[in-house]
Amino acid sequence: MADLPGYVRSCLHTGKLAFLAILVSGGVVLQVLACALYDNWWPMLTVIMYVLLPMPLLFFASSDSSSLFTESDNSWVNATKFLTGTSAVGSVAIPAILKHAGVICWGALAMELSSFFVFVLAIMCYIRMDNENDYRIL
C-alpha cells in the first residue's frame, strides 16, 4: 500500500473507521433491543462489564500493546490479563446466569451474546488497524 497516493490511503483509513463505528453501533443496538423487545431491562447488567473491560488495560498496561500478546514476567501485565479476562467472562456469564434463573428469555440471551461478539469483532478490527504502520502519522 506504500505506492498508493495519500488521498487513497486516507480514504481507506476513513472507511475502516466508519466500519468500526458501524460495528460498535450495531453492538449497542443489539444490546438495547435485547432489553426493549422483551420488556425486560435486566440484560443491561452486561453494560457494567463492558465499562469495566477496558479499565485494566487503561490503568495497568503500557502504551505498547504488544506486551499483552506475549508471555511476560511483569506482574502488572499479568494482572491486566487476568482482570480483562475476568471481565470478558463476566460479559458472557451474566446473560447466561439471567437465562438460567428464568429472568430473561432465549431471544434476549441470543441478542446479548451476539452483541458481545460484535463488540469483540470491533475490538479485534481496531487492534489490527492500530498495528498497521501505513496509517501512522510520522
UniProtKB/TrEMBL annotation:
Localization annotation: Membrane
Keywords: Membrane, Transmembrane, Transmembrane helix
Glycoprotein is among the record's keywords: no
Main localisation: membrane
Membrane topology listed for this record: Multi-pass membrane protein
Transmembrane domains' residue ranges: 17-34, 40-61, 82-98, 104-127
InterPro entries the UniProt entry points to: Vps55/LEPROT
One cellular component (GO) term of this entry: membrane
GO BP: any one term: late endosome to vacuole transport via multivesicular body sorting pathway
Assigned protein family: Belongs to the OB-RGRP/VPS55 family.
Protein name: Vacuolar protein sorting-associated protein 55 homolog
